[in-house]
Specification:
Helices cover 21% and strands 15% of the residues. It is α+β, with helices and mostly antiparallel strands. The longest helix is centred in the C-terminal third of the chain and has 13 residues. The N and C termini lie far apart (48 Å).
């Protein structure tokens, strides 16, 4: 097991399945992760697919600064440190860029929450005071 796989909770397959089609027949050969070409059909391993919501991250950092109205966290207003820039935030459902967040706010804001859920959570917290 590689060091970056330890403790991540993500199970990685030690193989890849060739899905290439030749003359209407799918190869389906099981290949080792170290193989760059399928020994059965000789075709190269397909490129990894990038999730659609990652398209928002193709914008450069300066575009996020302009979108956010300055280089500060969109929630708490914190400025970036000398060693770490702010995180680029995007909507996982629509892949739209939202702005910049500090690492603390970015970790606290789950990707599945909606504005209505946040309003309900705020009302709950205010009620319990």
């Amino acid at each position: 097991m590689r060091r970056e796989d330890e403790g991540s909770g993500v199970k990685r397959n030690p193989f890849w399945i060739c899905r290439r089609v030749t003359d209407g027949v799918k190869c389906n050969a099981i290949n080792s992760k170290t193989k760059r070409k399928c020994p059965a059909c000789g075709k190269p391993r397909p490129a990894k697919r990038r999730p659609k919501h990652m398209a928002a991250l193709e914008l450069v950092y300066e575009q996020y600064v302009a979108l956010n109205g300055g280089e500060h966290c969109g929630i708490c207003g914190r400025k970036p440190s000398a060693r770490r820039r702010l995180d680029r935030d995007h909507d996982h459902a629509s892949a739209a860029a939202r702005g910049l967040l500090c690492s603390r706010c970015n970790r606290a804001l789950p990707s599945w929450c909606s504005p209505s859920w946040l309003r309900a959570a705020a009302a709950y917290l205010e009620r319990k005071r």
